[in-house]
Amino acid sequence: MTKLIALTAGGTGGHVFPAEALASELLARGYDLALITDRRGQAFGGTLGRIATHRIHAGGLAGRGVLARLRAVTELGAGWLQARALLKSLKPAAVIGFGGYASVPAMLAATSAGIPTALHEQNAVLGRANRLLAPRVTRIATCYAQVSHLAAGLRGKVAQTGMPVRPQIIARRDQPYPALEAGGPVRLLVLGGSQGARILSDVLPAALARLPDPLRARVELSQQCRPEDLEAVRAAYGASGVNATLASFFQDVPERMAAAHLVIARAGASTVGELTALGRPAILVPYPYAIDDHQTANAHAVDETGGGWMIPQPAFTPESLAGRLDSLFSLPGSLTRAAACARAAGVPDAAQRLADLAERLVADKTEVAS
């Protein structure tokens, strides 16, 4: 009899991408899957779009006023009742959560029903939803060896699986880091999430305009921008003669990342996972207003491996970035070494490791039942 595993995740890329990768791996192993998410998200694409999706109530508590928190608690309570009835109907062999408050009702319902459960934490800081759930679940999968806000008494539940990334990234892992040849093109990729990042659109044009003319002429730039910033950024690059390709979203990020000599990006979990899986050096500018400042912890982890350089947003100025780029592109060996360090820190089989953990949960339940 085919066993069913339920996945529960919110709508942000940091939660969806690893859920997508795990879903692909579990389907390949012959499992049936169901996705439990909240009512706010849009329709999923890819593998998640092909499995049965169930939407329930959920609500976040962090950073809200008293009335909003009361409404969120009510939403979570309603979601728990819905999830409890849904799990009773689905009878999953295990439930795997990927964080965010959209996963809380289903995970609480699963733990109260005695269903084996696992959390996947994408960041170097345990998220607030996962902090609530961690004492209750069976296992905790992490991307980093050290995760802050994880209570010492829970370490025995932890398995470091790494960050599952898109198959298109893994397919390019063995593509060598491109040699930066004297006088040749310098390919720079700038990512700020699907909606871009205003600070990158403000700083990059001014920084590249400060580069020496011979170096600036070699730059081949691909940059994600917020839609409302596109025309202004395009005009700025046109004025300084930078060869720039701009878009609010690139469909071919794996190809562009594999071809890049350097990536400049925020330090979200998915971005860091893809950079290390591919082995591409990066300048990481953590988003400073994230709850618990988890992006700074992610960027520190990359910096410590030698796979990139963290620049806090207050220090990310046109002058400082221009100096850093001039130095890096003048010493290509430093980029090559960083690429090697990034690749060494990557976990290309993270999806398989997480699937193994899920299978062990199912096997343990079967043994107990028998």
Question: How would you characterize this protein structure?
Answer:
With 370 residues, the protein is of the alpha/beta class. The chain folds into two domains: 4-163 and 348-369, Rossmann fold (3-Layer(aba) Sandwich); 170-345, Glycogen Phosphorylase B (Rossmann fold). It contains 14 helices and 13 strands. It has helices at 13-28, 66-90, 104-112, 128-133, 167-170, 198-209, 213-218, 230-240, 253-259, 269-278, 294-305, 318-330, 332-345, 350-369; strands at 4-8, 32-38, 52-56, 94-97, 117-121, 139-142, 158-160, 186-191, 219-224, 243-247, 262-265, 282-284, 308-310. The strands form two sheets. The chain has a seven-stranded parallel beta sheet, with helices on both faces. The chain has a six-stranded parallel beta sheet with strand order 10-9-8-11-12-13, sandwiched between helices. Helix 1 (13-28) packs across helix 14 and helix 6 (198-209) runs parallel beside helix 8 (230-240). The two termini are 15 Å apart. The mean pLDDT is 92.
